[in-house]
Amino acid sequence: MTLWISLIATAAGCYLLKYAGLAAPRRLLDIPWLQRFATAVPIALLAALIAVEALRGEGQALAWDTARMGGLGAAVLALVLRAPFLVVVVAAAATTAALRWWGAG
Amino acid sequence: MPPSPPPFPPNDPSRERKNVQDPDRCAYLPSVDVKAPSFLRSTAVRDGIGLGVAVGAAGLAFGTAAVTAGLSPAQAVFLSLFTFTGASQFALVGVVAGGGSLVAGVLGALLLGARNTLYGLRLADVLGWRGVRRAVAAHGVIDETAAMTLPHTDRTAAREAFTATYVVLGAFWTATTLVGSLATDRVADVSAFGLDAVGPAVFLGLLWPRLRDGGARVRVIALLGAGVALATTPLLPPGVPVLLAAAAALVGLLGPGAEPVSRPDRVSVEEGRP
Fold first, then answer.
1. pTM (2 decimals)?
2. What is the distance in angstroms between the Cα of A83 and the nearest Cα belonging to chain B?
3. 3-state secondary structure B111-159
């Protein structure tokens, strides 16, 4: 039940954030610090999410998983080569699966 | 994927024209100003389908991640249908998987979703919708629709690009979430498929264009964000470290003459992921 409540809260909140943008006065975009901060927040969050999920271990511990890191290396390679998003995601999963099958991590 | 691929040869117009006669043909599309012939031949639709396939892969992964985290397939589909912004969904599910505080999970998802507010601000002028249409369109304000719509200065073209991307992606994202979550219900060992690498790979795909096009400031923010999150992960409940990392964004405010972290007018398709 608690889980459902948080799902509904997320859905409602995300919708309101989207709607606020469409409905707000556009001159908000002209406030430089607001613009800078709002652009910077996703960068910090995405970097944090990558780090935490890449090194996720049991419970709260961090752990190195060679197969998973290899998969992320493949994703980086695909991004450097400007591969489409689909290729990036599949490369990460396939490399991780292959490394695991070989017994790594 | 380039934002505006060269126009492809139009299909046989006589065949298309028959479709126009049927007024119900597009009835299922919300807030459509797009007529059948332009809809079927439109580059926007083709681009949308191209993106949709890529997003579909992420949708499969999301369905998988959600069920692995302990959500039911219904809950996974609910998120995809109503939250409809992938990074926030992955972030929330990641916290649930880690057994973290749900409040922190929701807040993290909302912070990530706040970038859609920025897209909305930029889209408002070019789309020019009011009332019910605006309320419906708001649901579709995400990375991809912004990336596909903002390059258009012409309102009709912008609306068509927005609607096509929104409808196609919405359908793909929700359908693949359903497939992914139902399939995972039957798979014993998810990690054998390397699906635990998909979440971080999705985030990486979102961050990469910002790192590439941004200056040193962007890299500092990213490094600080990652550092703060890693340093606090062993100490705090899952979800909270990622929230704390948002403080790294304050660096974006520091320093004289700080250049914009990324130019608002330069939204490329690559930037846009669900």
1. 0.74
2. 9
3. HHHCHHHHHHHHHHHHHCCCHHHHHHHHHCCCHHHHHHHCCCCCHHHHH
